[in-house]
UniProtKB/TrEMBL annotation:
Keyword terms of this UniProt record: Membrane, Transmembrane, Transmembrane helix
Protein name: Potassium channel domain-containing protein
Pfam families (alphabetical): Ion_trans_2 (PF07885)
Organism: Salinimicrobium marinum
Ranges that cross the membrane: 6-24, 62-85, 105-122, 134-158
Domain Potassium channel, chain residue ranges per copy: 73-154
Matches recorded under InterPro entries: K_chnl_dom
Cross-referenced SUPFAM superfamilies: Voltage-gated potassium channels (SSF81324)
Domain of life: Bacteria
Length: 326
């Protein structure tokens, strides 16, 4: 083999290895994105968040999902194609045994990876036959795994929407939410805290299994888990100041707050990517002090919540937009 053929084969092989690793790490490892899909989705997220029109958010998840899948497919085709052009005898015409040209090799590559067969061409020697069999099988594995992954992502997104709607039905904003827990705090916390905590932790674990679900945004506050969790977090941090640490109510609220903390810490990896204006947040929280209520501040949790909100296209102002129902 000439040096160019060796380089082409090695390059194609490396692309396939990297693609397989990125694909399986993202879809099966439960450890989030790997390098390629992670950087791609971060880039797409910045473009979508730069668009101030929240109507675009309704399609963000679809865009992330389709382009991530397309990226894997393109890399798979590219790596396989480079392998098949590395040797003249890799692919030949099934009838004439004449070596295929570049376009015919591309046709053979796509046909092979689609698991439909080998088309009008055939491997030219035994090594090519082994490669074709292995690549055809890998194409089948990737296609079936990708379909299963897509369905699982959709189910996780629906669970995330359920979490948001569950909280929003308790109160449309922080005023209603506070009134719900404050009017009959003991009963409300006893009845709701366990279910809320389980639902929050379930969605937190989904972030690791299906990291792409974090990019399914929405323009409706009632459907945004980030906004609803921030509202719940703010209300619980106020209510906690009204109870002794040894009380059942305090313990139940603390468990829900820890679940929210787990959600925000798993959902966002880089807090520093988002501006955190502590002074502005302190001004917004005067909403409580002007009503004679105390707030228990936690800077670390505030930074995580800030990153969670802004990664979903929202801000603290959206949490504190409320009607006065005191």
């Amino acid at each position: 083999m000439e040096i160019f053929e060796i380089i082409t084969f090695v390059l194609g092989f490396l692309i396939l290895i990297i693609t397989f690793f990125d694909f399986f790490h993202t879809t099966l490892s439960g450890n989030g994105f790997w390098y390629i899909s992670g950087n791609l989705n971060e880039f797409l997220s910045k473009i979508i968040l730069a668009n101030k029109n929240k109507r675009f958010f309704d399609y963000s998840g679809l865009i992330h999902l389709l382009l991530t899948t397309l990226c894997w497919l393109i890399l798979l085709i590219l790596g396989t194609y480079l392998i098949f052009i590395s040797d003249e005898e890799m692919v030949v015409n099934a009838q004439t045994k004449v070596p295929a040209d570049l376009l015919e090799r591309f046709y053979y590559t796509c046909y092979l990876l689609s698991t439909l067969g080998i088309g009008d061409f055939t491997p030219g020697h035994n090594f090519s036959r082994v490669l074709s069999s292995a690549l055809s099988f890998s194409g089948f594995i990737l296609l079936t795994t990708a379909l299963t992954y897509l369905l699982s992502v959709v189910n996780s997104v629906l669970s995330k929407r359920q979490l948001a709607l569950t909280i929003s039905t308790l109160g449309e904003d922080i005023t209603e939410l506070y009134n719900f827990f404050e009017l009959d705090s003991s009963s409300a916390l006893t009845d709701k805290s366990g279910d809320l905590r389980q639902l929050i932790l379930k969605n937190a674990s989904n972030f690791l299994a299906f990291p792409i679900m974090n990019h399914f945004m929405t323009r409706k506050k009632s459907r945004s888990a980030e906004v609803q969790l921030a509202s719940l977090y703010e209300v619980l941090m106020v209510l906690q100041t009204q109870y002794e640490q040894k009380t059942v109510e305090y313990a139940k609220m603390n468990k829900v707050i820890k679940a929210i903390d787990a959600y925000t810490s798993m959902g966002i990896s880089e807090e520093d990517d988002f501006e955190n204006d502590e002074d502005h947040l302190a001004e917004l929280r005067q909403f409580w002090t002007t009503r004679g209520l105390k707030y228990q501040q936690d800077s670390k949790k505030d930074r995580q919540m800030n990153a969670s909100l802004k990664s979903a296209g929202w801000d603290w102002e959206d949490v504190y937009k409320t009607e006065d129902r005191w």
